[in-house]
Amino acid sequence: MGKILTIANQKGGVGKTTTSVNLAASLAAMRRRVLLIDMDPQGNATMGSAVDKHDLEFTSGDVLLGRVSIREAIQYVEAVGFSLLPANGDLTEAEVALMQAERREFRLKEALAPVAGEFDYIIIDCPPALNMLTVNALVAAHGVVIPMQCEYYALEGLTALTGTIESIRRSVNPDLEIEGVLRTMYDPRNNLATDVSAQLEQHCGDRLYQTIIPRNVRLAEAPSYGLPILLYDTSSRGAQAYVALAGEILRRHRGDPPATAATGSN
What are phi and psi of 14, to 5 degrees? Predict the structure, then answer.
C-alpha cells in the first residue's frame, strides 16, 4: 500500500493547496506513482493540476456518497504526471449529506482501499476547516503534513490541530501520525518570521521539515496558469524548494539521516 498523506491546517491561506499540488508533481517527477485527492469544494487543487473543475463527470463528492467507485472518478493527468480525484462546488452537497450517513468518517478510507496499492503516494488536499471532509481525510491517512506560515498565531493554531489529530488517532485511526510541519511563504527579512521559525524548531523538533518554502512570486503565479511550479518555472526558488521537500520526505521514509535546511538557491 502507498503512503497516504493528508495536507491539513484549519487556517486558510497557509499553502495547503500549493503544497498538495507541488508535492504531488515533485514526487511524480521522481518517478513515484502519485494520486492527488481534492477534498476542498473550492477545487483549487483540481484547477492547479491542469483540470477544469467546471467540466467534471465525477468528483470526490460522488465517491464519498457512493454514487461511483473511486476508480471511475480518478483521472490520469498526463500534463502533470500524476492521477487526480478532482473536486468542485458539488463537494459541499456531499459534506452536508455525510452528516446523516452511516460510517460517515470512513467513506474516503473505504473508497480508497481498492486502489491504494496502485500508488506510491496518495496526497489529500483538505479545506481550511476541521469539518467532515477533513475528518475523512485524516481517518484515511497514515500521516499529516501541516503547512504553516511563521506568524503570530502559528503555534496556537498548531496546538488546536494537533489536538484534533490526537483525538482521531485515539478514536478511529491508530496509525495516524504527524508526518511533519512545513514552514511556508517564508521571508527571512521578516524578523517575526525568523522568531516564529525558531519557536517551531524548539516546539516541533524532528517533526519540523528542514526544507522551507520561500515566499516566491513565480510560485504564487503558477496556479493562475493551472500548472504546478515545476512545469511553470522549474528554475524558480519555489520549484527547487518543493523538489527538496519531496526528497526529504522520501529520505524520511527510507530512514535516511536528515539533510541540511533547503529553500532553493535563486
Answer: -105, 0
Range in 56-60, 97-101, 232-236 with the lowest mean pLDDT: 97-101
Mean pLDDT of 139-146: 97
Please count the other Cβ atoms lying within 10 Å of the Cβ belonging to residue 256. Answer: 11
Quote the pTM value. Answer: 0.93
Report residue 157 CA to chain centroid gap: 17
Evaluate if residue 261 carries a pLDDT over 60.
no
Q: Are 188 and 155 in contact (CB under 8 A)?
A: no
Please check whether residue 47 is in contact with residue 226, taking contact to mean a CB–CB distance below 8 angstroms.
yes
Distance CA 73, CA 80 (A): 17
Which residues contact residue 57 at a Cβ distance below 8 angstroms, ignoring those fewer than 6 apart?
none
Computed over its alpha carbons, how large is the radius of gyration of the chain?
17
Nearest residue to 263 (alpha-carbon basis) of 213, 219, 208 = 213
Grid coordinates belonging to 236: 524558480
- Owner of C-alpha cell 479545506: 127
The torsion of the CA quartet 130, 131, 134, 138, rounded to 10 degrees, works out to: 80
